């Protein structure tokens, strides 16, 4: 049982992890730290957190684990605020969608990276944001990627791995670079494509959505994520996202050319491969 | 009550419409016409259709309504096969995803367009194809677009409208040109984007899918449609699809540039607008 957990940023992921930790009897006391006292108060009233603080001192002091769950653009500020109150053995971890930038932020704040900082990223989400969408089962059967630092000791890493496994997740390890390249492709790129599709639709004929079938609705669901969170992801995984967009544009241009050339064989092959690959994932 | 309905192509849409017509007591006798006797036999065994034929004569003769539900690339062939057996008052309609090309195919076969041909398109679908995915509720609360011909009489159009309304759909009217432009944007474009994303992923790292969260899975679902159907849609709405891909690429390039320029304000604005627009659709 962890005595005290502090969750910084009680949004969708922060609140869902708080609930999951409670549901799995992992934490005695969970406090939320953030800027908006009124919202934190509501989260407390909903029993998502046991207490809340808007000053870092009370929030962090005597915490065994601190979990940063704010948009990745805020990490440098957040780490600076909490630094004075961390014990030597307080584990600090996070749920951010980018990992290189998170480690860079920690380097800026701490100089030498503390061996107690364990960067992590649960691959889970929802179209809705905020603790109102809190879901204690959000991490069940989801992957969590830990990108350990060279000086992390095995025991600290194990504690974070155990925490995630107990809420139902499967933990994998990779370098921050691999993480950012991979997630740039499997998560950030599709979101950029969906945002762009909405942008294009709005520029053309926003009311056309009434004639949209499932396909379009799925896209719009993807494109309804939190704007600040996605802005920060773009700023913090810039090169990978741009590279993936460029690569994608080549695929899209090749498809467009095949249509223009009436290359039916190529079209059928692209469409079949997509289906075959997807079916292999499901199987 | 319609005495005899012939459904040409007992796939997802054809079989679902057969079931919906039965569920709503609209048809006394529904036969399926197609090439694959073994599959048609199974559809009959599942009581989706009352009888099946692989020769057009028996299928079409004495039909009150003939519904074409094959990939749009097959229409010229299909219309040529059934033409000799149509009565003067047999209504012919379809469910094809493109409308200009469908009308052109009919013109080629019939010379002057028959006043009994009523082109239509239900905006409904599923990721699965074939009568195995048959769903009698597929059209409930879905739009059906009818693109009437100049010489269609009101009574014939009303009969097709009534048929769709009874299975739960809402019927709208537009020109074939408006239909193809609109659906090119709301349906064909998103599918092309999803197919291209799968194509890009396969070219990069097909096993990455295990690290894909909801966003990517939605995309892959969209990209799992029937390859021949989508090939035919591309060939039959070529110009509109290419134009929409070009327009989309501009939106995507603008987003990529905003990331490259670290234009946080613009990014936040694109992401917020997407969310606001989507929320307005839901509300």
Give the secondary structure arrangement, pairings included.
2 copies of one chain form a homodimer.
Chain A (H helix, E strand, L loop, with lengths): L1 E7 L3 H12 L3 E7 L3 H9 L5 E3 L2 H5 L4 E4 L6 H8 L8 E4 L5 H11 L6 E2 L1 E3 L20 E4 L7 H13 L3 E4 L2 H29 L9 H9 L4 H10 L1 H23 L3 H19 L1
Parallel strand pairs in A: 1-2, 1-4, 2-3, 4-5, 5-6, 8-9
Antiparallel strand pairs in A: 7-8
Helix pairs in contact in A: 4-5, 7-10
Characterise this structure.
Two copies of one chain form a homodimer. The first copy, chain A, has 283 residues and is an alpha/beta fold. Chain A has two domains: 2-173, Rossmann fold; 179-282, Orthogonal Bundle (6-phosphogluconate dehydrogenase C-terminal fold). Chain A is 52% helix and 13% strand. Chain A contains eleven helices and nine strands. In chain A, strand 8 (143-146), helix 6 and strand 9 form a beta-alpha-beta unit. Chain A is globular and about 65 Å long. In chain A, 53% of the residues are buried. The model of chain A has no long low-confidence stretch (mean pLDDT 94). Chains A and B meet through helix 7, helix 8, helix 9, helix 10 and helix 11 of A and helix 7, helix 8, helix 9, helix 10 and helix 11 of B.
